[in-house]
Each structure stands twice: as C-alpha cells, then as structure tokens.
Design a protein that fits this description.
The structure is a single chain. With 1212 residues, the protein is α+β, with helices and mostly antiparallel strands. It has six domains: 187 residues, no CATH class; 119 residues, Sandwich (Immunoglobulin-like), CATH 2.60.40; 149 residues, no CATH class; 93 residues, no CATH class; 81 residues, Immunoglobulin-like (Sandwich), CATH 2.60.40; 264 residues, Rhopdopsin 7-helix transmembrane proteins (Up-down Bundle). Helix content is 19%, strand content 31%. Strands 26, 27, 40, 41, 42, 43, 44 and 45 form an eight-stranded antiparallel beta sheet that branches. The protein has a six-stranded mixed beta sheet with strand order 9-10-19-18-13-16, with no helix packed on it. Strands 49, 51, 55, 56, 58 and 59 form a six-stranded antiparallel beta sheet that branches. The chain starts with 38 loop residues before the first strand and ends in a 23-residue tail after the last helix.
C-alpha cells in the first residue's frame, strides 16, 4: 500500500486466524491447505485429539513440543514424541491433553510440493466453561429479575444471558424450579398448515435444548403474589461444561384491585321500616377486598334525609362486645383524622436481633428505640459525641445513661474494694428514675439495668442474675459473659435476689453518671450477605444479657426468601401507651438509614395489616447522611377503622438493599383516640374471628315517610382517595306511613311583647304572633281557640297581671273561636294573630309569661293536637316613687312652715333681750339655711317619669342638689359656729380687755366670715357643676335583664350620678366635718354660759339627734341598695333631711320661745345679766349694757361682756 508505481507488487491472500489470546469459534476446528494458517483444534480435559497435516504437505519432524500434555503418532499412541522426532512415515499425530490446561501451541516441519521445508503451527484449545453475562441493565451479580403481575404470564428469553467462549449454542439445565410459578418450555414449531408458531411444552428432565430457542413461559399460581426463585446453569452440549448458577428472581406483583362493594337493596325491594319505629332497623353494609393488604374500611358517603344512621361502637374490653350505637351525623371526610396525639414506642414485644458486642454499654440494644429521641439533630448525624455545655439539657425520666456502680451512693459500693484497694470506676447501663433540679446541676437517682447470664446446673443451662464486676484483679477490659459475676469474692451471690435493684442516688452528669447521647437499635451483623449461606436459625446467647425477653432466634433467609413482599431481613414489634387509630408514623435514624420497607399494625383479631410498604430508600437516606441531616421515614400511611397499640417495623438490610447494618433511633406513632362517625367499625365473629359485614342502624325521623337512601364506599387504604371502590353502594329504605295528628309549630323563640318607652302613650299596643301547623298526611287543617290569653301573666315573683286580648283581623277572639288560617303548601297552614294590650300605662301590665291554647285538627276531626302557645310581656319596671312623694312633700311643708313661723316670731320679738342675745341676723341665716337644706328634698323627688319625659327636669334637680345641700348646711351651721365663737370671746376677759380683739367681733365682720365659708362651698359647687364631665346627671341603671331577651332591662333604678361624685362628696364632707368640729368645740367651750347667750347645749342635742338619725338610716339604705324600693328609698333620704333640719329648728328656737314667755335659766355665766335684761324688757335697748356692766354678780372676766365695741353695732 502506498506504492504509486505503474507495476505495484502483489501478494497472495491469507485467511485471518484466531490468536492464542482469543478463543476460536467452535466452527474453526479444521485443518487448512496452507502451512501459514495454523491448525486449530479443541479438546476436552484428559482427552485426545487427532492432528492432521496441511493438505499438499508431507510431514518431516517435530519442531517444538506442546507445553502441556503429550504428542504421539496415530499409529503408536504409547510412544511420546520428542523434539526433532521423525514423523515422515506418520499419517496423523495425536495430542493427549492433561486436566485443565491453558491454550497451547506446538510446531512441526513439513515439505511442500517443491520439497522445501517449512514450519506449521498447531493450536490446541481446551473447551472453556460457559459464562454468564456481566452486570447489565437487567442482570446483576448472576441475578436476573423478571417482574410480572399476578394472574398473568410472561415469556422470557434466556439465550442472551449465557455465553460460550467458543460461540457454540448452549443448553440450559434447571437446578431449582419455583413452587408457586409454573415454568414451561416455549418451542418454535413450523408446519405447512399454520406456519411458524410457538407452543408450550413441559420441561423434560429439567433441561431445555438450544435448538428450542431457550425461551421459557412463566405463569404464577392463581392466588400467588410475591417473590420466587428459578435457578439454572448454561451447559455446553459439546463439552458438557456448566456455567455458574444464574438466579432468575421472579417478582409477581400483586394486582391490588380496588375494593368492591355489594350494592344495597334497591327501590324495587327496599328495606322496610314504619315511620313510628323509633328502634330502627339493622342494615348490612357489605364490601370486600381480595388482597386485604392494608385493611378494608367501609364509609358512609351520603346520609339519609328522612332518618338517621347509627354505627356500632366497639366494646371497651372486647371489640365485638358492644351494644352502644353512635350516630353518623356527618358524611365521610377524607381529610378528617380526628384529634391526633403523639406517642413513642413504650415497650418491646419482639425483635429479630440486635448487636451484642457492646452489650455492657447498652449500645445497639433494641430498647434504645423506646421513648423520644436522644440524638442531637443539629448537624451531628451519628449521635455519638461528648457535647459541650451548651448542648447539655436536663435529662428526662427513663433516659439511658451509664452509671458507676462503685459510686459511694450505690447500694453495691461494697464491691468497689478488694483488700482495701479501691477498684476502678465501673460504668454500666442505667435508667433515670428520679430527678431533682434542672440543667447540668441536677441530681438524679438511677437504677442499673438488671443483667443475666447462663450457668450450668445439673447439666442444664439456666438464666440467673449477674453483675459486670472488675473482680479482685481489677480487670481493665470487661466483657460479657466472662465478667458478669454471679458470686462475689467470698462465694456469696452478688445479687441477693432476682428482683433486687441496683440503685445509685444523688448523682449527676460527670458526678457518677455519663450521658453520651448514643441511643439506637442496630440488628446483628452477619458474616455473609449471601442468603443461601444465611438460611439457618441465628441464635446468640449474649442477647439474654438484659433478660430472657430479648433472647433472639432469627433466620434471615426465611423472611427474605419467603413469600412475603416486600422482602425484609429484620423486624421489631413494639407497643405504645394508648390505643389509637393510626394517622402517621415516623421512624427516625441518625445514620445507616433507608432500610425500612414496611410498617404494620395489629388488628383486634390479632392479624398484621400493612400501614405502608415499599422499597428500601438507600439513595434518599444517603443524601441525608451526606449533609449530616437526620433521616425520617415518614410516609403516608393507610388509615384504619380500629384502634391498636401494637405495631411492627420490617427492615431490608440485605446486600441487595445496600443498607448494611441499618439503625433505628426512635419510632413515633401519631394517632387519634377517636375516628369520624362515618367510618364503620372493624367487625368480626368472636368465635371464629372471621371478618363480618358492618352493621348500621337506620332510625326514621319522626313523622317522615316515603323513600329514603344513603350511600357508602369501600376503601382498601384509608386516606388515599385513589384506593376507593369504583362504585358507591346505595341502600334504599321505604318508610311506611302511619296517620298522624297535626303538628303545631310555635316560634323557635318565645314571642316577646315589649312595652318600650315609645309605646307607653296611654293607647293600645298590638303585637303580632303567628302559629303554624303541619300535617304529614297533607290533610286540610282547622285552628280553634280553646284557652284565651286574656287572663293573666305571672311575673318572676309570682304576681299576676293583665295579659291583653287575643285578636284576629280587629276582632277579639274567645274560647271556641275558629281561627282563620292561610295555606302555605300542602299540609302546611299558618294563622296570624295579635296580642292587644289596651294601655301600657296600666300598673297591672307587668313583665311575665302567659299562654293561650290552640287546637288543630284535620278535616275528619279524628286526629288533633292541643298546643299551648306561650308568649311573654316585657315592661320595664322603673321603680318610680309614688306614695313616698306625698310624705316628702309633707316633710318640705313642715320644715318650710316651721321656718316661716320662726322667721315671723324672730321679727316680732327682735327687740326682746332673748332674741337680741341670740343675734337676729344669725337666727335669720339659720332659718334660711334650713329652708335651703329642706329644699334638697325637692331634688330627690324628681325622676324621668314613666315615659322618660322628665329626664331634663331630673338632670336639673341632680345639678341643684349639691348647691341646696351645701349652702343649706353652711347657712345653718356657719352662723351657729360664729355666734358660739363670739359668745365665747365676749365672755373671755382677754377679749374685753383688748379693744382690737373686741372690735373683730362685730356682726359685720362675722358676716364676712360667713361669706368666706359660703365662698368655699361656692367654689366646690361651681367645679362640681360646670367642670366638663363632673356635673351630676340623672341616669338609669338596669337592675335585672330578662332571661329571654338579655338586652331588655325589666327592672331599673334612676339616680343622680357623676364619675367624680365620690371625690366631691369627700371634699364637701371633710369641709363640713371641720365646720361641725368647730361648732362642737365652741359648744363645749360655752357650756358654762347661760343658754340665753349660747345654744351649745341644745345644739349638741341637735347634732347628736341628727347623728342618731344618720347612723340608723345608713344601714337601712345599704340594705335597700341591692333591691331598692323607690318609696322606701325616697322616704328615708327625705326623712333624714327633714329630721335633721327639724331638729336644728326645734333645738335652736324652742328654748328661745320658752325663755321669752317663761324666763331664763338663772344658772351659768351671764345669767344675772340676762335675767335683769328680761325684767327691764320695757326699757330701751341702750340701757341694757350699763346695767349689765354694773352687775355685782359679774365676775372679773365678764364685767364688760355686753359693752359695745367702738364703731360696731349698737345692739352689742
């Protein structure tokens, strides 16, 4: 090639041949006609093969020998040829192979037709063992998986998975035929009639020949689903050599059909029930699910309209033992899961296995899944660390820790010493049973986990209590069972009894206990992952370390190679604390997760049903582990119609799953104590515990008849809308009619007839009321009045009052009246009536209940109903005073009349020494004060009236009240105070000896003091009246609301109110008390002065009398506050004012009138002077003073008492 000359060189064509590095095709076992082409031969081990010479060549000698085996001539098989051996006379050679040899080559010398010697190669190949295709899309590790549906069949071509190095067609030999899958040979047959067709033939002698095509047909048994194994080898028909075993994994998938329902009775033959049957009828709800993998739930999807459905409630102890029925008041809601609660695994009932190589530390034990997780989830995926202080928290009750059994607070501390030598600390697994305090400083009481071991007694192994103990040699490394001591150093039992507890008190983190957070279950690890090699029962005596309950006996292959699907290798069964309807599960794993393939729940009849099942999630879990995240197996589960506390988790930790040594940290079950009523209860027979149809009870509504129906469905995975029966079942119910009396329908709420303030006009008030009657028989109805409403109402206190008249179309109805009624629809009539109250003003109209009775009957008059129609009249009782106003008026008239009389008397006798001694000006002021004070009664008498029209007047009266009272009080007592003050000073020698002081006692100056005191009250009243929001107004406070209309006040009381009234009352009271204190003081100071000059004695009596009245009346007013009677209230308050003023008038003026007509008392200071003055009453007033000054009976202290001051009033 590459020669561009005109005459290129040519070469003879040589056939390509196989080299020793690649096996020749089976058809290449030939001898050529060219010495350059090697002779290629196949031979079996320990066999021989004839070697022929190339055609056209004659043999000469042996050039090289084969590296294995022997070479002879065909004629002499006994003599082995050597190098250079003459073979010119030989016609053929024979190669004798040894056992198992590699491909080899030897050479011989031959002559061609030109008598030229050339070399010729002979290649000898052993027949190679057939092999199985390397891993591919459908095959891996000599396993080929075939997936098919149950009740189906599948043809599978097997030719391409077994190969020959030599290219020969291989046969198949079956080594294991599955039990639940029929395997047949598919043969290609050609005929003139049908052409080429496939036929199925039985497999003869477990072999199928390559000329049949190596196609098989798989057909599972009718009811089978799961995994089966077909095992085979490829066989060389020439050499008989066989390949390794190929396992055909046949996965027969369940054809999980939707559940089915059996339709109920139809309209032609419905369920029958009488409308008066209050007990109801029982109806079967039937459904079925062939697989029942995830349970079967029957639900009510549509409720009846003319009756009610009830379902049977499971019994408390036995599920089937129940006579209770629960109403189904709502149709099925796919998303109603009740009120879920969270629970964690509480106790272990059974487990396949667990690692025991770290038994002493309790690591990997199955009980580690109990309770809430201990693993830190913030980036620590292994839960195996020494946490810094910020990660430590208070340890929960039941937490697993490691506790030092040699601690001083341990009840086994005596074992910590050997020949006075303290042994090293010995930390064993323990549970926290008490806690004191919080955080890292908390103290705990722990109980060491009881440990056990086997001992030989009388040739038998028995389980006894033991304790891991370092022994007298103080061993450093401890192991089980070698160091689990049954007896102590002295030969005594180390554990006194089987129920003895090793307890350590008052220990804490780093102070007797260690908590490292590692807490998960890990199944046992096995030496092989080949299921065939693991097909034995695995036992481990170390598993009894924490009790016989955990003694494991487990065959991994039995579960993995069994019929169940999905396949699993490990399992754990546990209980939670409270039975619930499962809603969700959460299986947490800190590492090596993804192996959970199924979660099951135990039914009431002790059967396991799947909540969820699937394939291992290795890749998903691996991604979580890569980012150090916690893995949660939280699938959607199939909800059930029964409560349970027993659950089972199945794990695939096989080599195929890739989840080697799977772990589980905790199991959380979320479930609801109740299930929605529309889910029918799980049911079965007590004796046979066979599944029964669910029963419901149908109870017709009162007075309902005709056709009714309800619908139901079946679900084989509750909560999954795709797992619902295709069709809904329907049950029809025919309610047969019974003639019924009419039904009188009164208003839902009792009619309330309100006499509001706007209605109290003195005229009639009418209220509408409607009476409706219906008849389920659709008859015409007649209304008749059989009891009139015009008798009376009865209020809450039992008092009777007028109830008004019953009217219709402006006509008064009487007993026996036939009422007009309007037909609303067939069997439904209504009659509109009125209650007429002729005058809401009437006192006899009061709040209370009343009724009238209507008789309604059908046209035949046979069926009738008497129905009382109740209504209620509401009228506000304002508690307005009536009789007491008359007494209050009398009080005012008495006080004003007496004041007027006294005013006239003072004026007439103003020149009399007695009057002059009392000072006319001050007596006049006292009379004005009593008039103002008594006028306060007028403000108490004001109210807003029965119709509220007096509200403005009442407001004005409230505003005037403090003015009248304060000015009345001050006008009354200020003059008394100043008069007593002046008298005390006039009879004081110090005053008379000082003209300046005496000058200050003039009437004018004293009146200025009165004005000053008035001014203080004036300022207080101005603020009380005109400051924004301070003024007292008339308000009405509700005392009682009606029980039917809580917004209507049936009782109220009016009073004067201000938000700041209490403050002003305190200020006024304090000021007036100061005034009274001064009056009392000067009453005491002038006690020795004659009564003609000082009214102290009588004033003391007046104040005491007023105080008695006040103290006696205040408790009465307090007692009346909660249930105030307006007349009593007004009478007491007006009486207090009247009596107070009347007392003042009486005790001030009565003695003066008496002295005027009968003379004065001759005792006391000034008695002589006033006696002389009275006797000289006919003398001029100007002479009184000298006479008094010249009296010999005067003391040194009062010789000039009556002398007038310079520039003052001439009378004094």
């Amino acid at each position: 090639m590459g020669d561009t000359g005109k005459n290129p060189e040519t070469y003879a064509f040589t056939k390509p041949v196989a080299c020793l590095s690649s096996a020749p095709e089976f058809s290449q076992n030939t001898t050529g006609d060219d010495h350059k082409v090697p002779t290629i031969l196949h031979v079996l081990d320990n066999s021989s093969v004839v070697v022929e010479f190339p055609r056209g060549y004659t043999p000469v000698k042996v050039e090289t020998l084969p590296g294995n085996g022997n070479l002879t001539t065909f004629a002499d098989n006994a003599t082995n040829l050597a190098v250079d051996a003459d073979i010119s006379s030989a016609t053929k050679l024979v190669y004798h192979a040894s056992e198992r040899f590699l491909p080899l080559m030897f050479k011989i010398r031959v002559k061609d037709g030109s008598n030229v010697e050339v070399s010729h190669e002979v290649h000898i190949w052993s027949y190679l063992t057939p092999f199985i295709l390397a891993d591919g899309e459908d095959i891996s590790r000599n396993k080929y998986t075939v997936t098919m549906l149950e009740k189906g069949q599948r043809q599978t071509q097997l030719r391409m998975y077994g190969l020959s190095w030599h290219g020969e067609d291989l046969d198949i030999e079956f080594t294991n035929i599955p039990e639940f899958v029929n395997v047949s040979n598919v043969i290609w047959v050609e005929s003139q009639e049908q052409g080429a067709t496939f036929v199925q033939a039985p497999i003869e002698d477990n072999v199928i020949k390559n000329h049949h095509g190596l196609t098989i047909n798989l057909r599972p048994h009718f009811t089978f689903s799961g995994t089966q194994y077909l095992k085979l080898r490829y066989v060389s028909p020439t050499s008989g050599k066989k390949s390794d075993e190929l396992t055909v994994v046949i996965k027969v998938l369940e054809n999980d059909n939707l559940p089915e329902i059996e339709d109920g009775l139809n309209e032609t033959t419905p369920n029958l029930v009488n409308e008066d049957n209050s007990s109801g009828i029982l109806i079967d709800i039937k459904g079925k699910d062939e697989e029942e993998i995830h349970g079967l739930i029957l639900t009510i999807d549509e409720l009846p309209t003319k009756g009610k459905l009830f379902k049977q409630v499971p019994g408390e102890t036995d599920w089937w033992d129940s006579t209770e029925w629960q109403e189904i008041d709502k149709k099925f809601n796919l998303y109603d899961v009740g009120s879920p609660i969270i629970q964690y695994a509480k106790s272990i009932t059974k487990a396949s296995s667990f690692r025991t190589d770290l038994n002493i530390d309790f690591n990997f034990h199955v009980e580690n899944i109990l309770g809430a997780p201990d693993c830190i989830q913030n980036g620590y995926s292994d839960c195996e660390f020494t946490p810094p202080s910020e990660f430590l928290s208070t340890l929960e009750m039941g937490s697993i820790v490691r506790a030092n059994v040699y601690h001083n607070n341990s009840n086994m501390v005596h074992l910590a010493f050997s020949d006075d030598t303290r042994l090293s600390d010995n930390y064993l697994a323990a549970k926290i049973i008490e806690r004191f305090g919080e955080g890292v400083d908390a103290n705990y009481t722990v109980q060491v986990m009881p440990t056990w071991t086997y001992v030989e007694e009388d040739g038998e192994k028995i389980l006894v209590r033991c304790m891991i103990h370092r022994g007298p040699e103080n061993k450093n490394e401890l192991s089980y069972p070698e160091d689990c001591h049954v007896k102590d150093d002295k030969g005594n039992p180390i554990i006194p009894s089987s129920d003895f507890n090793i307890t350590i008190t008052n220990v804490g983190l780093g102070r007797g206990i260690i908590y490292h957070g590692r807490r998960f279950w890990e199944p046992a690890r096995y030496l092989s992952s080949n299921m065939d090699e693991m097909n034995y029962t695995h036992t481990d005596d170390k598993s009894v370390f924490y009790g016989a309950k955990y003694n494991t006996s487990h065959n991994v292959a039995e579960h993995y190679l069994g019929l169940s699907e999905p396949r699993y290798t490990e399992y754990i069964e546990f209980e939670i604390g409270e039975e619930v309807y499962p809603v969700a599960v959460d299986v947490g794993s800190s590492h090596r997760a993804g192996g959970v393939v199924a979660v099951k729940v135990m039914t009431p009849d002790d059967k396991w049903v799947y909540l969820v099942r699937g394939d291992p999630e290795k890749e998903k879990a691996k991604k979580k582990q890569t980012i150090k995240a916690y893995f949660h197996f939280k699938p959607s589960i199939c909800q059930q119609n029964f409560k349970s506390k027993r659950y089972r988790i199945e794990i695939d930790a096989s080599a195929e799953s890739g989840v080697y040594a799977a772990t589980v940290d905790y199991v959380k079950v979320i479930g609801s104590p109740e299930v929605q009523p529309a889910v029918l209860a799980y049911n079965y027979s007590e004796g046979t515990k066979m599944r029964l149809d669910s029963l419901v009870k149908y109870v017709p509504n009162p007075d309902s008849f005709g056709m009714d129906q309800f619908k139901f469905s079946a679900h084989d995975c509750g909560g999954d809308f795709q797992r619902k029966s295709k069709e809904q079942g329907t049950h029809f119910i025919n309610i047969t009619e019974t003639p019924d009396a009419p039904v009188v329908v009164i208003p839902a709420n009792k009619p309330l007839l309100k006499c509001n303030s706007s209605d109290i006009t003195g005229g009639p008030v009418a209220f509408d009321i409607s009476v409706t009657a219906s008849d389920v028989d659709k008859d015409e109805l007649v209304f008749e009045l059989v009891l009139d409403a015009g008798y009376s109402v009865v209020d809450s206190s039992g008092n009777s009052g007028a109830a008004g008249m019953l009217m219709q179309n402006s006509k008064q109805l009487t007993v026996g009246s036939i009422l007009e009624a309007n037909k609303v629809e067939s069997g439904l009539y209504t009659s509109d009536l009125q209650i007429l109250i002729d005058n809401c003003y009437k006192p006899s109209i009061r709040t209370g209940a009343a009724e009238f009775m209507i008789k309604v009957y059908d046209k035949d008059g046979i069926n009738y109903t008497n129905r009382p129609i109740q209504f209620k009249i509401l009228k506000e009782d304002k508690h307005l005073a009536s009789t007491s106003k008359t007494f209050a008026t009398v009080f005012i008239v008495l006080n004003l009349g007496l004041s007027a009389f006294m005013m006239v008397w003072v004026f007439v006798y103003r020149k009399h020494p007695i009057v002059k001694a009392s000072q006319v000006e001050f007596l006049g002021l006292i009379l004005v004060g009593t008039v103002l004070s008594s006028s306060t009664i007028l403000t108490l008498m004001q109210d807003d009236g029965i119709d509220g029209s007096g509200a403005a007047t009442a407001d004005m009266a409230c505003a005037l009240m403090p003015w009248l009272y304060t000015f009345g009080f001050m006008t009354t007592f200020a003059p008394l105070y100043l008069k007593l003050f002046k008298v005390s000073k006039l009879f004081d020698i110090n005053t008379r000896s000082t003209g300046k002081k005496f000058n200050k006692l003039s009437v004018k100056r004293l009146l200025l003091r009165v004005l000053f005191l008035w001014g203080i009250d004036f300022i207080i009243c101005i603020l009380f009246t005109f400051a924004p929001g301070h003024r007292m107004t008339y308000v009405r406070d509700p005392l009682r609301y009606d029980t039917d209309d809580i917004n209507f006040a049936v009782e109220s009381a009016g009073n004067c109110y201000s938000e700041y009234a209490f403050i002003y009352v305190i200020i006024i009271a304090a000021f007036h008390i100061v005034m009274l204190t001064h009056v009392a003081y000067y009453c005491y100071k002038t006690r020795a002065i004659n009564d003609a000059f000082s009214e102290g004695k009588y004033l003391r009596i007046a104040i005491g009398s007023s105080l008695q009245v006040l103290l006696f009346s205040l408790p009465i007013m307090i007692m009346m506050a909660e249930n105030p009677d307006p007349d009593t209230n007004l009478f007491i308050r007006a009486g207090i004012i009247w009596l107070n003023d009347f007392t003042v008038l009486g005790f001030i003026f009565a003695p003066k009138i008496y002295f005027t007509y009968f003379g004065v008392n001759e005792s006391g200071i000034g008695a002589a002077q006033i006696t002389t003055a009275v006797s000289k009453a006919q003398s001029t007033v100007s002479k009184i003073s000298p006479d008094l000054n010249s009296s010999t009976n005067s003391t040194a202290n009062n010789t000039s008492v009556l002398a007038t001051s310079k520039g003052t009033d001439s009378s004094w």
